[in-house]
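Supplementary Methods, section 5.1.

A reviewer requested that the exact input to the structure prediction be made available. We therefore reproduce it here, unchanged from the version used in the analyses.
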Amino acid sequence: MSQVGAARTERSGVDRPAAIAAASYLIALNALIINVQPLILGALAKGYALGDRQLGYVSAVFVGFNTLATVSGPLWVRRVDWRLLSWVALGGATACLAAGGYFSQLASVLFLFALIGAFKGAVFIPSFASLGDTSNPDRSYAVSTVLQGVSAAAVAAPLSAWIIPNFGVHGLFLTLAAVMSTGLVAICWLPRAGDVQRKERTGQVGAKVLSGAAIAPAIGLLALGCFGGGAAAFWYFVERIGADRGVAPALIGMTLSLTALASIVTAAIVAWIGGRLPSLAIAVGGVCVMLFGFASLHLSRDIGFVAANLLFSLGWGLSTPGFWAVLAKIDATTRLFVVAPAASGLAAVIVGLVAGAVIEAGSYAGLIGFSSTLLMVSALLIVAASLVFGRLPISPKAAPANVR
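The structure derived from this sequence is encoded token-by-token as follows.
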């Protein structure tokens, strides 16, 4: 077989079940730091006596460097060996986490999370691109969302109930390092590249990034940024919101575990119906569920807290694969959609920098209002991106089906 034929065979492997599972699991590991961040911030607050403003800086540094690592994705994602890059980056993240318990000063904690964020961003891009190149991105991204929920639930429960109370910050970091190390095995099934199959399937030849074809994905990235920022504004401080309402720590930990399971339910539904419902409807519908969750905070102390978090996670499980699938489908450049994590990351950085100050200046109610506004704007923008894409002068063969 010629070198070209071998490359084409390798790149067509993105649709293999093992490849989808590997990429989904690596994305889940990348998201794990965010998914258990309320527990991480809570442990840092108690172990190192950090305030809300300082915790916001920790969140912002992690997501900021994660964003810096991913924003250059369109330049190299189709040129590097996905497996080799993932092994190096995930190995670096695991090593940093293993050493995390030895950093106790704010400056050193910020440096640690900067390194972890950069390494994790490099792991995310190849896996995200691999799922976007599959023949059914709705289903592939939903599978990754399911695994994110499963991993978060499996890790959050022991962290909150046993590891953090008994072993503190040191035990927290060692546990996360052990979990991350499992991804080094999964990388064996990650494809080395995946661009060729995407072009063959859709008839796309890869429009120039600096062209009219980039308008729709650019709007979509802005929508994803608002969505990520809106979700982060609430999720980063959900543990502190519960404590402020007087919710018992045990109930907070149990609720966080249940929220992970809730997102699994809706993501599994998306995986099951993948391709049969418009991606846009799934994305917008999920945002509406999240907003209903915020409204439920007006209920009694414990019931309102639990209901808000469950609805928030149910909506997140719907919207996340929906937003990602819409963006992958409307991207005629075949490159810009991989910046999706950077778009969410940039918004989360801004939220992390200002959220603590907003809380200290007012209350958590103001933060929730800010989150709601961003989520509503994200829904409007993703609809606009889909409408712009529908007016692009491209052939029916090149237009991905079932965007709206």
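Residues 137-181 form the longest helix (45 residues). These observations are discussed further in the main text.
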